[in-house]
Amino acid sequence: xxxxxxxxxxxxxxxxGTALPSAPAVAQGDDDSDDGSASGADGDAAGDGDAKAAPxxxxxxxxxxPDELPPVIKMERIAAKGFYSEAGFGAASYLGSARPYSAIxxxxxxxLGYDLFSWFSVGVQLAVSSHEATVPPPPDKEWYxxxxxxxxxxxxxxxxxxxxxxxxxxxxxYISSNVLQKVGVLDPGERFTVAFTVGGGIxxxxxxxxxxxxxxxxxxxxxxxDAAQGVEGxxxxxxxxxxx
Amino acid sequence: xxxxxxxxxxxxxxxxxxxxxxxYITPATGQTFSMEYDxxxxxxxxxxxxxxxxxxxxxxxxxxxxxxxxxxxxxxxQIPFVRLEDVDLxxxxxxxxxxxxxxxxxxFDINGGNQYFAYDPGQFxxxxxxxxxxxxxxxxYVAPTPVPGGAVVTGVFREDQIREAAIDIxxxxxxxxxxFKALLEVNKNITEMPILTPIVIVDDExxxxxxxxxxxxxxxxxxxxxxxxxxxxxxxxxxxxxCSPHLxxxxxxxxxxxxxxxxxxxxxxxxxxxxVWTPTxxxxxxMP
Lengths: 244, 288
Known about the structure:
The complex is a heterodimer of chains A (244) and B (288).
Chain A: H1 3-35, H2 40-46, E1 83-95, E2 105-117, E3 120-133, E4 142-159, E5 162-175, E6 192-205, E7 211-222, E8 228-240
Antiparallel strand pairs in A: 1-2, 1-8, 2-3, 3-4, 4-5, 5-6, 6-7, 7-8
Chain B: H1 2-16, E1 22-25, E2 34-38, E3 48-51, H2 59-72, E4 87-97, E5 104-113, E6 117-118, E7 139-140, E8 145-147, E9 152-157, H3 159-173, H4 179-184, E10 194-196, E11 200-202, E12 205-206, E13 211-215, E14 226-235, E15 246-257, E16 280-281, E17 285-287
Parallel strand pairs in B: 6-16, 11-17
Antiparallel strand pairs in B: 1-15, 2-15, 3-14, 4-9, 4-15, 5-7, 5-8, 5-14, 10-13, 11-12
């Protein structure tokens, strides 16, 4: 259902909801206009035709018959499905034995994916985080970048406007300098490693079905970098190109 | 369109981030870049010499160097494999005072060489004259560096300082400039290097020099490929009786390899895969 059609339904429903209750009022108003008053006698007169009907309170709210009520519009959010991209920022940190040698650092991530089903998508994720090396000096106050790229799959579900997902993937990582070689995290000449990741997140669908934002967290493992592990948390904005 | 632009910008940021990534040249496995000065021994540690791990020159690079020599009308063997613009170097150091109760002052200087010549300030002092003035080192501090008791002091010789040192040694050796003049002036932004007549020192006095009309072209300026590091210390200004300085100096080299001339594995690389040079220690001509 397109947003235009959905909006038209809302407008029609609202219009119907105001028009139907007003119909008796108009008729009653006509009666009122005949004698120029809005007395209770008029109300009685209006009900004279059906002696068994409950008396109508002219000052009470007018309620249409149930079968004439407009349909209740469900307010759950519609999310587009198809190709999508995500851009996010957050922070990343090492865990375990590599943790003492690198400070928590800012990270940015870019993800491109495709929804095969409403509950499963595949994609590629590129992320980079920047860390201050906290190895014994020298060097001192030196920063490096850790680039990560994964091909991954994402399983998810939606409850109303909230979606949940878990994801996992494999890929590679590149470190911009060998500053961690001093502490044995890297071997001489080593800059690349295979990498694995798992994670999950929660996503909020905006009224515009193309947009959502969310919070995600990932754990990653870098086997060739002395099995260094890390976590990343990020806030992201998602745009789905698909129309269905 | 905006979304596409943002996408390209993001990818560009990731790609540009990889450019000129630094490589830390750390000691080979099992070795250290450190020197310990124990004042009670009354003897400074001997200088440590480090030659950086440059890979072998490829045939293609030899050919390109020969073509450059033809273009510059300069001898091919006078165009170095490791040129000034090929790699940006800096030296990061730390000094730890092992004696928590005694402040100390550290003194260190760094000399070095390119693939043609090495600079040793002592060579410019007349060996027969004990009062002869010795030129300053290529890199170092005029004032001693205070190191409070138990503290760690860190510092860095920046890329522009190493560049200055590399140009200075070219001026001193291949352009015959007086080392006092070369080292006490700022030369890192010069664009040409005229060659002077050789330095001749008569009775501890350098003789006047004239330009030869020849130049060392900027494309042939060499980067430093080796360093000699000396280190000593003395007590701080106000120390308790009986104190003697006990310091450890550590350092490493940080390189931004613009042409890929450094070996990826650094000093851990197979020696057969590394270039080896034996630069001549430059000395002026002394006349009685």
